[in-house]
Amino acid sequence: MNFSIAPLDTSLAPTLQHKIDNKTKPLGSLGRLETLALQIGLIQQDLYPVLRQPQMLIFAGDHGAAAEGVSLYPQAVTQQMVLNFVQGGAAINAFCAQNGLGLTIIDAGVNADFAADMPLVHAKIAKGTANYCSAAAMSAEQFEEALAAGAAVVEQKFQTGCNCVGLGEMGIGNTASASLIAHQLTGLPLSELVGRGTGLDDAGLAHKTATLQRAMDFHALTAPDPAAVLRTFGGFEIVMLVGAMLRAAERQMLILVDGFIATAAALAALKMHSNALAYCVFCHASFELGHKTLLRYLGAEPLLQLDMRLGEGSGAALAYPLVAAAVTFLNSMASFDNAGVSRAI
Question: How confident is the model at residue 342, as a pLDDT?
């Protein structure tokens, strides 16, 4: 699937920066909110940007490698948490309700059957990926189908007026998949990218690391490209995240990236289309070791650091009020000229 992502047009930057600097405050005193306001104004090419119908999209999928014991929790938890999302009982439900965010749950490849009338997007590619310790996680056809499905979810939101999407996931075993993707696409040591996930002890972490090394030895990818890495080690939910990010960037939407898995998907998306980076806001630095490593690699400065490791878009939902605050000060705060406030001497 092809995406056409234009470089961010920065011709409006001087005018936007002048507007920011002319607000009734010491120069630069709103810190990251100022750079965020500039980014959003450039994405929308507007001195008065507006966040319209912001949506959280949570992609859920299962991983065949969960059978290798790379997670503390059984695979059934993926299905159980999807039901919890639909019933309104998860952290992401609470945070979206608090902050005025729409919430859409997507079945990308959960190893379960859901009723056709369940209020989620039924986009299941298969009931989980294959076990990447003994086979590629998905076929080339499944990869393309998942990429297109993620893009289609964003396209539907765009067509209804949304211009800001938060991206999260749910899938037992997907921190292991994210670690493999990150290692393959950055060349960074696996030891800097494999973490405890949902709470592995030292023995569990050692087993997880050894399992991932075995998977890499089995496939022995040489000069891997993003598509090959995703097909080999990815999850359907991760590939859909990549498709969602690329379509959102193509449509010049603001992209709120959640934690480690979402950032690994962003890494793959950026390796495919580097212009997509300008549309991304990295929302928090999670407690997961690999997330901090990836953020440093990308040169990304997250908005929050709360030692979270929940996933499901929770960090993006919590960061959204800061994003809204950046737009609010840009649009509503008085300037020195119209407020009659003296500038610094």
Answer: 65
